[in-house]
From TrEMBL, chain A:
The lineage of its organism: Bacteria, Bacillati, Actinomycetota, Actinomycetes, Micrococcales. PANTHER family: ABC TRANSPORTER PERMEASE PROTEIN (PTHR30193), ABC TRANSPORTER PERMEASE PROTEIN YESP-RELATED (PTHR30193:SF1). It comes from Microbacterium yannicii. Residues 8-21 have a biased composition (Pro residues). It is a multi-pass membrane protein. Keywords: Cell membrane, Membrane, Transmembrane, Transmembrane helix, Transport. This is Sugar ABC transporter permease. CDD domains: TM_PBP2. InterPro entries: ABC_transporter_permease (IPR051393), MetI-like (IPR000515), MetI-like_sf (IPR035906). Residues 91-304 form the ABC transmembrane type-1 domain.
Length: 320, 443
């Protein structure tokens, strides 16, 4: 044994101190590569979404019938909107759909999510089965089938006669077309349900156990633990479903046969916008309608976000 | 830096450079490939007989008309092996929203059916080609009545060629009436007599299965309204403006309440269920007022009714308000790449005697005498022909001129009259709404 073996090991290659930590600056090549890859989407966004939106904002102040050049009319279109009975009817119909349909849909989603949260045999299958409608629900074929279910002597009519309710398809009855459409919306509860399920699984078990120890019943547990812990998910779903409900078009168009329903009972805002634009050649008017819809949805979104401070708990928030 | 660090840094720069280059290449090829898919070629001025050509053809109508068109197209493709025709059809309302969208994007079909309702817009705004250069040449017009050819004109240029003309008629299901114990009307009826007849039928048919009604709510029929206006001595359009008052329209729509109350008209809820099937063809109503040439369509309905034709109701024999409506015009989209072949196809559809034989009278009276020659009028065709001949000297009315906004007015008329049928609007309110629309549409 020599003294050498007791000598300290050879110094590692990087004995020189590492450069002083500084904020990593992206190299231009990286940024450039990023933009190049992003380019197709960016081009599409600018040409197909942002550009037309700006054009539509301009058109909202014009009289444009698609064929001759637009003529500037200032706020005329917006003024005309408020004295248009069909316009007010469109708001009424859409408001009913949003205010009734969305809460019902979310209630169904939450309810079924609670049931499916307890993993029983086959819960995976049911999860997929309930999710399926929300994948296909907005399609034309489903709307056609849904309508066919509700005509005279159709399946729904037969069932309601069986239970002693008066006979009559729902399609022709102005009072029943909205419930029919709301049912179609509620049937597609699968997507929010899956999100609720994910949220439910994140609620810590200890909270429920502690509550049981304190003698809380299931309802108390639901109200004091589940709902507050789920509130971010509820907020997310509520916001998204509300925005989507304002934009429903395909099902309303198909089920009303492209007319806005018997006696304007399915004259949704988007449907009326379409009629004005493509049936009556009043593109300026339709653009004005479109921008009002954007503003209303934006306003509602802002209200949601502001109010969320009051009722949405995010995990990690200190006390309340 | 150490050697290893230097080399790895150099390699990563080179890799980044390669990445960027690859990205640019990918994006560039994407752009080129998407550009390759669409492609417009200069439309040929004259038809090259050896060129393989595909034409798009669209029409509105029901399944029976579709069958006949397909048969005519098969014939055309046999005679012109280099031309293939791709077809599409829809109901009247859906058809026009589709065409309007296509007009905006300049993707109209090469040949498509045109109507007075939209002739002014499509012709006036240059969405369809003027046919003048083809008329008398590729499209033979010597067998067509000049006034019918002129009917497709906007500002002295012909934008659509009428393939037929038609008139309204009242269709009665004789056997059904007898079955219900209602007297089949012998001669023409007045409006009130017709309403009474409808009420009688509904009363007798209430116990049938399915329930039989007198008719549909005829106040929804835009063209019957035209006839009624003529009978009142009014015209729809006069000097570019509406030729009648709100009160007149309210009078017309107040007839709706009468026939609904008496039960003569099928309830609106029931009527809404009929899609793709006609109530008359399903024998759920015993009479209807429609185009005389729809006789084959109704007769081919699920209940195969035996129908007879009579004139629409009128109160004054000298004032029937009836007119010939130029129908099923054919136009060429401006964006067509093969206008010459499209013109040849139009000539075929309008003039060919075999096409005349295929359609019989189901389009109406053929505009072209050569097409009419091909018809061996038998059965239903004979009935229609006989009817047309019987009313030929009673046509004292006029079809409204093709004005911009006519299509919108027609559609709004139908939509608002639905509200009246449901009782959701009074005739006065409905008339007010329609007039407000008309003000906007006609400017």
């Amino acid at each position: 044994m020599t003294v050498d073996t007791l000598a300290p090991p050879a110094p590692p290659e990087q004995l020189t101190p590492p450069p002083a930590p500084r904020r990593p600056r992206r190299r231009w090549e990286d940024i450039r590569a990023g933009y190049v890859f992003l380019a197709p989407w960016l081009v599409g966004f600018l040409l197909l979404t942002a550009g037309p939106m700006v054009a539509s904002l301009y058109l909202a102040f014009t009289d444009y019938n698609l064929f001759s050049p637009p003529q500037w009319v200032g706020f005329d279109n917006f003024v005309r909107l408020w004295s248009d009975p069909d316009y007010l009817q469109a708001w009424k119909v859409t408001a009913v759909y949003v205010l009734v349909g969305t809460p019902l849909k979310l209630a169904a989603a939450l309810g079924v999510a609670l049931i499916l949260n307890a993993a029983f045999r086959g819960s995976g299958f049911y999860r997929s089965a309930f999710y399926l409608p929300s994948l296909v629900g907005a399609s034309v074929s489903i709307a056609v089938v849904w309508k066919a279910m509700f005509i005279d002597d159709g399946p729904v009519d037969s069932i309601q006669q069986f239970f002693g309710f008066p006979a009559g398809g729902w399609v022709g009855d102005p009072d029943k077309t909205m419930p029919m459409l709301i049912l179609l919306a509620v049937w597609q509860f699968g997507a929010p349900m899956v999100i609720f399920l994910a949220g439910l699984k994140q609620v810590p078990h200890e909270l429920y156990e502690a509550a049981s120890v304190d003698g809380a019943g299931p309802i108390r547990k639901f109200a004091a633990i589940t709902i507050p812990m789920l509130s971010p998910v509820i907020f997310f779903n509520l916001l998204l479903e509300t925005i989507n409900a304002f934009q429903v078009f395909a099902s309303a168009f198909i089920i009303s046969g492209g007319t806005g329903g018997p006696a304007r009972s399915t004259l949704f805002y988007t449907l009326y916008l379409y009629f004005r634009g493509f049936r009556d050649f009043q593109m300026g008017y339709a653009s004005a309608m479109a921008w009002i819809l954007v503003l209303v949805i934006a306003f509602i979104t802002v209200i949601f976000f502001r109010s969320s401070r009051l009722w949405v708990h995010y995990a990690g928030d200190e006390g309340r | 830096m150490t050697t290893r660090a230097i080399t790895s840094a150099a390699r990563s720069t080179a890799r980044r450079g390669a990445l960027t280059a690859g990205a640019i290449l990918a994006v560039g090829s994407l752009a080129v490939l998407t550009g390759c898919s669409g492609g417009s070629t200069e439309p040929a001025a004259s038809a090259d007989p050896d060129e393989k050509v595909t034409l798009n053809f669209a029409w509105w109508g029901d399944a029976s008309r579709a069958e006949r068109y397909e048969a005519a197209i098969d014939l055309f493709e046999e005679q012109n092996p280099n031309i293939t025709i791709q077809t599409s059809f829809a109901s009247f309302g859906d058809y026009w929203t589709a065409r309007n969208t296509e007009a905006a994007s300049r993707t109209l079909p090469d040949v498509f059916q045109m109507d007075l309702a939209y002739l002014a817009e499509y012709g006036g705004f240059g969405h369809v080609l003027p046919l003048d250069e083809y008329l008398g040449d590729t499209i033979a017009t010597d067998a067509i009545e000049p006034s019918l050819v002129e009917a497709g004109a906007v500002d002295d240029q012909i934008f659509g060629l009428a393939s037929s003309s038609s008139t309204l008629a009242t269709l009665f299901n004789g056997p059904l009436l007898e079955q219900l114990g209602v007297e089949v009307p012998e001669g023409p009826l007045t409006w009130d007599e017709y309403d009474d007849l409808l009420a009688e039928v509904s009363a007798a048919g209430a116990s049938s299965d399915p329930v039989v009604y007198g008719s549909l709510d005829y106040t929804q029929y835009f063209w019957l309204f035209q006839i009624w206006l003529g009978q009142q001595g009014l015209s729809f359009i006069e000097d570019g403006e509406l030729g009648f008052e709100q009160a007149d329209l309210a009078d017309w729509w107040s007839r709706s309440a009468t026939i609904h109350e008496s039960g003569g008209a099928m309830p609106a809820e029931r009527q809404a269920q009929f899609e793709g099937v006609d109530a008359l063809g399903a024998a759920e109503i015993a009479s209807d007022i429609s185009w005389a040439n729809f006789l084959p369509r109704f007769s081919e309905g699920p209940a195969a009714p035996e129908l007879s034709l009579a004139m629409p109701p009128y109160d004054d024999e000298d004032n029937t308000g009836m007119f010939l409506k130029p129908g099923l015009m054919l136009s060429i989209g401006t964006n067509s790449e093969h206008p010459a072949q499209a013109a040849a196809f139009i000539d075929f559809l309008v003039n060919d005697p075999e096409v005349g034989a295929i359609f019989g009278m189901s389009r109406g009276v053929p505009a072209s005498a050569t097409a009419a020659e091909g018809i061996e009028a038998s059965g239903l065709d004979e009935q229609i022909l006989a009817y047309q001949e019987s009313v030929a000297d009673k046509l004292d009315g006029q079809a409204p001129p093709a004005v911009q906004g006519l299509g919108t007015l027609e559609q709004t008329f139908v939509t608002i009259s639905q509200d009246v049928a449901y009782g959701a609007a009074t005739p006065g309110e409905a008339a007010e709404r329609w007039f407000a629309e008309a003000e906007n549409a006609l400017k």
